[in-house]
Automatic annotation (TrEMBL):
Signal peptide: none annotated. The chain crosses the membrane at residues 6-28, 70-93, 113-137, 186-208. The keyword Lyase does not apply. It holds the Pfam family DUF599. Keywords: Membrane, Transmembrane, Transmembrane helix. This is DUF599 domain-containing protein.
């Protein structure tokens, strides 16, 4: 094994460990101390919002708020799909892109096969991102019908049921946004594993702050 291949393996493995460790920490924080995280705070806020909407029967406000969320999710889903197609297209037509990539690759392997693998992984991440945003749209559409029934005696459209579906849609929205965030590391990997590691450290520092603010 060459020294460049060894550097590639070590730096990529370090990046994976950093990102996975942070998200395990975040998951445990949300589970055990949710109100100290942005995810827990917004889940609680949505629960209160559903309670107010259904008690006061403010159907117009509900539809306007859900419409804004749907528009954002639709835009992000379309963006993710376009980037996914672009990444896959670039993978099969390397051309000048691979030359620019190798010029910035200070440490690591410089093979066309690995470069294509990087782009394929980037495309897969954006496909998963697209899929999560479409699921988010699906759940928000369900909420649009459920929240306007105002049937407190029906458990399928109760306040708890509506909140559960709404937060489920928000979860897919959050996962979709994580896909955009994590794509930064994969995109930097195109220019070398050392850039990937550096970008991941900056990304985790930024996410650490964002995940603790509503």
């Amino acid at each position: 094994m060459s020294i460049n291949s060894l550097f590639e393996i070590v730096l990529v493995f370090s990046t994976i460990v950093i990102l996975v460790s942070y998200h395990i920490h975040l998951y445990l924080k949300v589970r055990h101390d949710p109100l100290m995280t942005a995810i827990g705070i917004t889940n609680h806020a949505r629960r209160m919002w559903v309670n107010g909407i259904m008690k006061e029967k403010r159907d117009i406000l509900a539809i306007q708020t859900l419409r804004n969320q749907l528009m954002a999710a639709t835009f992000l889903a379309s963006t993710a799909f376009l980037i996914c197609i672009g990444s896959l297209n670039a993978a099969f037509r390397p051309g000048v892109f691979i030359e620019v990539s190798n010029a910035f690759n200070l440490l690591g392997t410089k093979t066309e096969a690995l470069w294509m693998l990087k782009l394929m992984l980037l495309g897969i991440v954006f496909f998963i991102t697209f899929f999560n945003f479409t699921l988010c749209i699906r759940y928000y559409n369900h909420v649009g019908f459920m929240i306007n029934t105002f049937q407190q005696d029906d458990p399928s459209v109760s306040e708890e049921a509506v909140t559960h579906v709404l937060n489920h849609g928000a979860l897919h929205y959050t996962i979709g946004m994580r896909g955009f965030y994590l794509s930064v590391s994969l995109a930097l990997w195109l220019f070398g594993s050392i850039w990937m590691l550096a970008g991941s450290l900056v990304l985790v520092a930024v996410l650490y702050r964002l995940d603790r603010e509503a």
